[in-house]
Amino acid sequence: MKTQKYSALFVLASAFLLIGCTDQAKGGMARARLLADPSSPFEVTTNLEQVKEIHTAQQKEYLAYNGEYVSIPEANYPDGRQHLSDPEAVNLAWNFSGNKEVSRYDVKVGKQADLSDGYVIKGTAATSLDVYNSYLGDNYFQIIANYADGTKEESAIQMYKVDETYPRNLKIDGMTNCRDMGGGRTLEDGGKIKQGLIYRTSSTNGWGNGRAKVPDTITNDGKEELLNRLGVKTEINVNNGGNNNYIGVQNFVIANMWYDSGKHHLYRNSEPIKEVFHALADENNYPVFYHCRIGTDRTGLCAILISGLLGVSENEIYQDYLFSNFGNIQEKRYIGEKAGRDNILNYVNDLKAFPGEKFQNKVYNYLLSIGVPASELNSVINILTEGTQAQGNDNHQEAILADAFEAEGTEMKTETSQKHPKKYYTLGEGQSVTGEFNPDYDGEAKLVAYLGSSSNASFKINESISATLDSNDVEIDDEVTSTSAGFGQGDGRTYYSAVVLGTVNIVHGSTEVVITGKANNLNIGAISIIPMERVTPVDPKPNNNSKGCGGSIVATTSLIALVAAAGASILVFKRRKQD
Fold it and tell me: How far apart are CA 275 and CA 277, in angstroms?
């Protein structure tokens, strides 16, 4: 009876402890350990109170740098010619006192306290196992003894904690330069990127291009890790010509980014960028992994845009970019002049040219200007952020795509590839497109046009097009040229860029922007108006005499006073924009 009483008390205490730990886990507990049954044959000998480290000594030294990564000494990171990007394993060890013969031990691991997301790692008859690809922070596990007679016995669920320094770099056999974009970093507005949803990697097939010193095609073990343990549903291939679903992933998205020796990736790949964000905006596509060949340059551009949109700091963006040198990427990557054409400072500085209080807002406005809908951008932020999401993006900016233009002298063209926008116009001399806007604020804004040209000639944009806002000429920046806009062509595609034409003064109400061709036959796919500062909507204060079209019929008070003073019985009204 006494034994039964104590057993009952133990079960009750264990149940309370399990409930308590589960609740704490949901709230982000710092550390927990589920009580093991003292009568259980399992005894974990790994110190579960000690925070585990998944970064190698060389990786830790790089990540501990306390300066600006944009100017980190080159000696502080590898040369990109060795495969050094894998994490360390977390070793789990135990004793087992069962009375039956054990043929194999397995370990079930996951991030949820009840292991509802658990994945079983098959072991051997040895009483220890190396666990790779642990989450940053809390990890839960359960040991499974498989008996020779076909039965099994499971331990209590217990927990170990991994140091939360970004990145959660990954070991995927046959690949290099792989990591989870989530965890670790605190975003500008306080949130974090969720772990286990979006991964950046090398290609699954032929990333070494015949030059790698290790197998450069994913192995069966690598496929198992990627498809079943990480559970990826969608592969986004940004490698030009990479149209082969090599691992048989559920959703295969082609966003081929062209690589040439002339223009940097932000200019030559705006259409594929739109395809990337379209895929990321669908929550049914997750988990996702994206890659080019070695997962550094085109993948790096995507990482800058995704990280920037979510609110990762510039310094941490640079840190993440240079971490690719731990992969076998065949040559060292730099930031600055030594980086050559794909100096990521060029990307960042071009993005900074867009209005926005923070870098995250500037990235949002850039993506909006090339034609990524606000609904898709907001969806990406919502899906990938835990905690406080990026703030300040909704600032009454407006973007109009080509299918909403009114055109004169030119016809809309359609495109099914990624060589042009899906819909666009070509502006020859005297040909024009008009966009109707309806701003609800007063103040200065930037007028942006999404323009493209296949010409490699150098010319000024203000000699190629003119612009008016409500019939008033817009002064197009004299220093904006085809070269600074990155125009040109490669692989049969035309290069497009969101070009900041100049500053305009906005008065709330119906506003008409007309872009007219002068020379050089520029293509246009969108027009945007983006406030330069935070704006406050103007209270429309409608009255009974108001009409549509963004304007209203309002009494001109000075005339009313004059007529009333004269004793007249007729009120005179004037149509103007509403105050």
Answer: 6
Could you give the CA distance from residue 364 to residue 219 in angstroms, rounded to a whole number? 38
Q: Are the C-beta atoms of 173 and 222 separated by less than 8 Å?
A: yes
Q: What are phi and psi of 482, to 5 degrees?
A: -60, -30
In the Cβ-directed half-sphere of 405, how many Cα atoms lie within 13 Å? 30
Chain segment 289-306, per-residue pLDDT in tens: 999 999 999 999 999 999
Among 209, 478, 415, smallest CA distance to 329 is for 209
Is residue 359 over pLDDT 60? yes
Distance between first and last Cα of the chain: 86
CA distance 84 to 214: 11
d(CA 265, CA 279) in angstroms, rounded, equals 19
Q: Whole-angstrom Cα distance, residue 121 to residue 266?
A: 41
SS3 content of the chain, % helix, strand, coil (to 5): 25, 25, 50
Alpha-carbon span 366 to 265, nearest angstrom: 14
Report helix, strand or coil for 16.
Answer: helix
154-166 core/surface letters (b: 16 or more CB in 10 A; e: else):
ebbbbbbbbeebb
In terms of CATH architecture, what is 166-386?
A: Alpha-Beta Complex (3.90)
Indicate the domain borders of the chain: 1-61+83-163, 166-386, 398-531, 541-579
Helix (H) or strand (E) holding 63: helix 57-63
Helix (H, G, I), strand (E, B) or coil at 400: strand
Q: Per CATH, the architecture of 398-531 is what?
A: Sandwich (2.60)
CA dist 539 to 470, 536, 579, Å? 21, 9, 8
- Give me the torsion for CA of 243, 244, 247, 248, rounded to 10°: 90
Is the confidence at residue 576, as pLDDT, over 80? no
- Give per-residue burial for 249-286: e unless 16+ CB within 10 Å, then b: bebbbbbbbbbeeebbbbbbbbbbbbbbbbbbbbeebb
pLDDT of 268 reads 84
Phi/psi at 306 (5° precision): -65, -50
Tell which residue, 527, 511, 516, 518, has the closest CA to residue 408: 516
Q: Of residues 541 and 408, which shows the higher confidence score?
A: 408
Q: What is the pLDDT of residues 7-25, one digit of tens each?
A: 444 434 444 444 444 444 4
Which architecture does CATH list for 1-61+83-163?
Sandwich (2.60)
CB 162 within 8 A of CB 54: yes
In this prediction, residue 240 carries a pLDDT of 81
User: Within its chain, how far is the Cα of 314 from the centroid?
Assistant: 14
**pLDDT tens digit sequence for 157-189:** 999 999 999 999 999 999 999 999 999 999 999
CB 421 within 8 A of CB 278: no
What is each CA distance from 45 to 49, 94, 121, 130, 141, in whole angstroms? 11, 5, 19, 14, 14
Given CA atoms 182, 185, 189, 192 in this order, what sign does their dihedral have?
A: positive
